[in-house]
Amino acid sequence: MTDQRQPGCQPGCQPGCQPKGLIGRRIGLQIGLQIGRRIGRWIGLQIGRWIGLQIGRRIGWRSLSVVFCCVGTLLTVSGQEIRSHYVSKAEADGTIYHTFPVTLFENSEAGDLTFDITYKEHREGRATLNFTCRMANADAVDSVRFESGGIVMAGPVARIYLEPEKRGWKHRYTFDLDASRLCGFFDERQQPEVTLYISGVPWIYRVKRSAWRSYAPIGYRIFEMIRVNELR
To answer: Which distant-in-sequence residues (6+ apart) come within 8 Å of 170 by Cβ?
Structure first.
């Protein structure tokens, strides 16, 4: 019968056993690989720090900070996925676009304000903005003013519905606006606000800053895309 023991086995070993020396070499190899990986990461980190130091000395730390800031901004904007924030449909007389409702404004007494925008190509550059808000009573809103920096979109509103809720009333309105102002409106550097007028009395809705910073680049890219597509 052929001896199936590995070279280096001690007398009395069972067939198929692993010699102690071979096991030790395998354990040593695994330990060596782990140590090598850790040392490799550490060396890479030190090299990266050294390169950054040399660049900083040559172009100045302030300039380097500006470069990193610009790169970060570009990566954030380019990484924004806009397709999940609107729908579009090609029709015989032009494509229609509709943004999904978004809640970016709030009033400390009344609550949130949610809006969506619909745009149809080849209609003299007009868009429709629908918004929903909540009030303590059913007094109708007369007009609205959306303002962001120097961009103002304002006008009379048409009521879609009033709906009673457990606490107060749910209002929904629509108004017509100049779509060419939308790209300028969605400027993440601004702190926009919405003012509703009820019998001449203003109700101011302040922006939710974190929500605005997240959505403004998306809104800008949606309406910049629409503008480019319509020009083709």
So the answer is: 132, 133, 134, 162, 163, 164
